[in-house]
């Protein structure tokens, strides 16, 4: 079973057709998860999440009542907590629902502390074991995550650029068969290699590393702006 | 002298009144910097940057000609380079222009590899020595950066939340006098403590740490969404 989770990030950053994609997923019996305000946003699209997680402290009573009366599985988190709602969601998806993959939307844009928490939760050892099953998705970016080993990175249609992000410090990172290669790179802190590309005649390249967590950031230009 | 740099990130993320603020800065003889497409965006606002930096490879010839004929100091970077245009900009601002502070705009939104590069360049040892003089600013967030030591964090009007982001692993991080305190926290990888707050009767709190780089992320809700 696949799972899709909507967090409370701004709608402007959502991929197009999110409503249809979620509806289609539910028809296939995939799991639809709302995290905090994301639960309400799903209901506003006419979709009932299968699972809702949060402290719901930003919701009006009537909004929470609507979720409470419709969602089959609601998990209330404490406002003061060790794990964020996003982390709790990942754990419940994999440990209670045993999903095969999890795509997280609504994680980007808006408050930068929120985005960074949602991105860097992947380094939390309780989450990191599921890293390779997690995708972060918005209208312009798709992120996959990798733990140490050898990995084949596949071209994805519509994305012109691919960044390789060392999120935590890395040992012996190699990038082979991409436009810009890298050999045995080690560092003790995060560093992002942006704007790499697949070679014209290849749909894959390889990465390998011995320690750390690496994100592959697929991205596209939506307007002509770019900022490095 | 203060400096303001505009990178090429999407306009939707810029603070309001950016044009007036830049115009006012130039009247005060502060330094206005355009980085790559940011140079053109400044000219489109009717402002001539004092300094333009980039490989300008995303610009049309006519666009580049416009910059070339108007900007007093243009530094061309190589498209294949060790330093990003943002890093080059920071170095030139502090080392050639000896500015006292640098506020970077247009660094957020759009491509996540770009944003993370602009954020994590602060860990580059060649940039890190200027960390405490650098501010990242968009419509919803203001980021300050700190190197090891004791620091007083000041309330800023209009920002409800304050996150404390360990960007690289940290030793003995303390947060004192804020709503959520922290004592002697150490970690080997980035971790973000979001949604902290100033106490109602206080306009400051203190942080201290012995190793690492910490970002203070001031943020506000623009809409009602939030995502953790």
From TrEMBL, chains A, B:
<dbReference type="GO" id="GO:0009229">
    <property type="term" value="P:thiamine diphosphate biosynthetic process"/>
</dbReference>
<dbReference type="InterPro" id="IPR007373">
    <property type="entry name" value="Thiamin_PyroPKinase_B1-bd"/>
</dbReference>
<dbReference type="GO" id="GO:0016301">
    <property type="term" value="F:kinase activity"/>
</dbReference>
<dbReference type="Pfam" id="PF04263">
    <property type="entry name" value="TPK_catalytic"/>
</dbReference>
<dbReference type="GO" id="GO:0004788">
    <property type="term" value="F:thiamine diphosphokinase activity"/>
</dbReference>
<dbReference type="InterPro" id="IPR036759">
    <property type="entry name" value="TPK_catalytic_sf"/>
</dbReference>
<keyword id="KW-0547">Nucleotide-binding</keyword>
<dbReference type="Pfam" id="PF04265">
    <property type="entry name" value="TPK_B1_binding"/>
</dbReference>
<dbReference type="InterPro" id="IPR053149">
    <property type="entry name" value="TPK"/>
</dbReference>
<keyword id="KW-0808">Transferase</keyword>
<dbReference type="GO" id="GO:0006772">
    <property type="term" value="P:thiamine metabolic process"/>
</dbReference>
<dbReference type="GO" id="GO:0005524">
    <property type="term" value="F:ATP binding"/>
</dbReference>
<dbReference type="InterPro" id="IPR007371">
    <property type="entry name" value="TPK_catalytic"/>
</dbReference>
<dbReference type="InterPro" id="IPR006282">
    <property type="entry name" value="Thi_PPkinase"/>
</dbReference>
<feature type="domain" description="Thiamin pyrophosphokinase thiamin-binding">
    <location>
        <begin position="149"/>
        <end position="215"/>
    </location>
</feature>
<keyword id="KW-0418">Kinase</keyword>
<keyword id="KW-0067">ATP-binding</keyword>
<protein>
    <recommendedName>
        <fullName>Thiamine diphosphokinase</fullName>
        <ecNumber>2.7.6.2</ecNumber>
    </recommendedName>
</protein>
<dbReference type="GO" id="GO:0030975">
    <property type="term" value="F:thiamine binding"/>
</dbReference>
């Amino acid at each position: 079973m696949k799972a899709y989770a909507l967090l409370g990030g701004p709608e402007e950053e959502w991929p197009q057709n999110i409503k249809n994609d979620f509806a289609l997923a539910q028809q296939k019996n995939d799991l639809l998860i709302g995290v905090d305000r994301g639960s309400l946003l799903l209901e506003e699209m006419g979709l009932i999440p299968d699972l809702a997680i949060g402290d719901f402290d930003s919701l009006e009573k009537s909004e929470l009542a609507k979720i409470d009366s419709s969602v089959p599985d609601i998990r209330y988190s404490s406002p003061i907590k060790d794990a964020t709602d996003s982390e709790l969601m990942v754990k419940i998806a994999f440990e209670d629902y045993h999903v095969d993959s999890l795509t997280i939307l609504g994680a980007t844009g808006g408050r930068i502390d929120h985005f960074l928490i949602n991105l860097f939760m992947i380094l939390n050892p309780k989450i990191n074991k599921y890293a390779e099953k997690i995708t972060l998705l918005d209208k312009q970016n798709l992120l996959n995550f990798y733990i140490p080993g050898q990995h084949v990175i596949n071209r994805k249609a519509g994305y012109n650029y691919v960044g390789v992000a060392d999120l935590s410090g890395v040992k012996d990172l190699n990038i082979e068969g991409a436009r810009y290669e890298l050999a045995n790179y080690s560092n003790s802190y995060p560093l992002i290699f942006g704007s790499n590309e697949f070679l014209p005649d290849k749909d894959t390249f390889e990465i390998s590393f011995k320690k750390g967590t690496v994100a592959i950031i697929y991205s596209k230009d939506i307007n002509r702006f770019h900022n490095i």
